[in-house]
């Protein structure tokens, strides 16, 4: 059902530059390789629904501001739309499209009963107070109306959103339902605080999954992670937890970059101390002691074994990829490597663990939260991490098999798994008899 107030639902338009162009190029390359049915290709090239809401919020000083919120629902052949909400000035329709499309491939690749969605608000959250952010989130939820729902479209955290914001969404969504069904709708979002139906371990699920993938890569290549050096771009949810888990393997974090600073220490940066510092410093690493400050453009050229991009898209580009010396890039972020940069890096023998697999621990964790809510169960942390690791191992194996079958790189192999699964689903249903 479409909320008639402040709502435009549009069909997808012409591809434009940026992440959206990248995702379509990746899709077309893989679709050619697997000889995807032409009709299914047309379906998957398009997004099902693109929702833009303009909603007013009264700020603390009494003035009114109108915000732009997006939710793109790419495809729901495998189940309800699923994917995060981002609060960032770069959120626009193209970014939401690209990120929603990646979610479809990701869910299909790791065998989840979900389609792909993504969205957010075009906003710099640092400019607003906590109570303003709460009102903005609640009005956004209200404006989305029944376009989201536990069996329709299930948002989750992404850049600059977190468990608290998910709790506000769940609370607002439930409060506009009849009292008799309120509590059974908490799984309209995942990534909630544990006290509000959240999953123990969803906070670390993405970073845990990134490191699980690095371990699978290391095992395949007989690499000992102990003593290996790594650098991380973005020290938020994904960047911190990936650093935490990789340090547990004996690897050494030697540089971190966020929007505030680029920090370096070849003797090692302690992820826990850095996280404690960032927590006291609006989430930012700037001002951390025991590190030298580098120019931002020098980050990817740092001598190291592993790079974990865990910030925004299009960070590793044709301009900076020549400087990269690492053996492997584990894509914690969505779309961090441009297509041209990837080509160059692969030609130099650098491995890229593709985002749709590498960061999928998050949505797998979300799936278990959703299932836990549906079944009124509670799982322990060890059980949750084991279940996530298990799905990742299977998906990693499937990616290797398809890469081998078609003699293609890992990203195309991962896409081949996802597209084959979607094609099978459409054909089984008789859409294309
Ligand atoms: N959260 C999740 O479960 C999942 C997230 N992802 C992806 O992982 C990435 C990170 O998400 P998440 O950790 O949740 O987000 P957070 O908001 O928790 O952290 C984002 C980090 O990126 C940094 N950053 C922002 N802009 C820049 C920049 N221009 N240069 C360097 N660093 C920058 C931020 O720094 P600052 O604080 O200074 O702005 C912050 O450290 C995104 O691409 C997201 O889509 C993928 C799967 C699941
Ligand atoms: O947990 C989820 O539902 C989605 C997380 C996400 O946004 C992503 O994987 O990019």
Which residues form runs of ≥5 with pLDDT under 50? 1-16
CATH architecture of the largest domain: 3-Layer(aba) Sandwich
Radius of gyration from the CA trace? 21 Å
Helix content: 40-55%
> Helix count?
13
Task: Present the secondary structure layout.
Blueprint (H helix, E strand, L loop, with lengths): L6 E4 L8 H16 L3 H8 L3 E10 L5 E12 L5 E7 L5 H17 L5 E7 L8 H15 L8 E5 L5 H13 L26 H19 L8 E5 L3 H12 L3 E6 L4 E3 L6 H9 L12 E3 L11 E4 L18 E3 L8 H9 L3 E3 L1 H4 L2 H15 L5 H26 L3 H20 L4
Parallel strand pairs: 4-5, 4-6, 7-8, 7-11, 11-12, 12-13
Antiparallel strand pairs: 1-2, 2-3, 3-5, 8-9, 9-10
Helix pairs in contact: 1-3, 1-13, 3-13, 4-5, 6-7, 6-11, 6-12, 11-12, 12-13
Bound molecules: NADPH dihydro-nicotinamide-adenine-dinucleotide phosphate (NDP) and 2-oxoglutaric acid.
Architecture overview:
InterPro entries: Aminoacid_DH-like_N_sf, Glu/Leu/Phe/Val/Trp_DH, Glu/Leu/Phe/Val/Trp_DH_C, Glu/Leu/Phe/Val/Trp_DH_dimer, Glu/Leu/Phe/Val_DH_AS, Glu_DH, NAD(P)-bd_dom_sf, NAD_bind_Glu_DH. It holds the Pfam family ELFV_dehydrog_N. Keywords: NAD, Nucleotide-binding, Oxidoreductase. Belongs to the Glu/Leu/Phe/Val dehydrogenases family. The longest helix is centred in the C-terminal third of the chain and has 26 residues, at about 380-405. It is built from 13 helices and 13 strands. Residues about 1-15 have low confidence and may be disordered. It is an alpha/beta fold. The chain folds into two domains: about 5-185, 3-Layer(aba) Sandwich (Rossmann fold); about 205-350, NAD(P)-binding Rossmann-like Domain (Rossmann fold, 3-Layer(aba) Sandwich), CATH 3.40.50.720. The strands form two sheets. It has a seven-stranded mixed beta sheet with strand order 10-9-8-7-11-12-13, sandwiched between helices.
